[in-house]
Amino acid sequence: MPTLVEETLDKTTLYYREGGSDKVYQCAIEPAGNRFVVNFAFGRRGSTLNTGTKTNVPVDYDAAKRIYDKLVKEKTAKGYTPGPDGNPYHNSPKADRFTGLLPQLLNPIDEAEMNRLLTNDNFCMQEKFDGRRILIQKQGTTITGINKKGLVVGLPECVVQAAQCLPGDFILDGECIGDTFFVFDMLSNHTDLRVLPYRQRLVQLYNLIASAQQRAIRLVETAFKHDEKQRLLKDLRAARKEGVVFKLLTAAYTPGRSNSGGPQLKHKFYATLSAVVAKINAQRSVEIRLLGDDGWQAAGNVTIPANQSVPQVGQVVEIRYLYAFKESGVLYQPVFLGLRSDVEPMECLATQLKFKAEEDAC
Question: In total, how many domains does the chain have?
Answer without folding.
Answer: 3
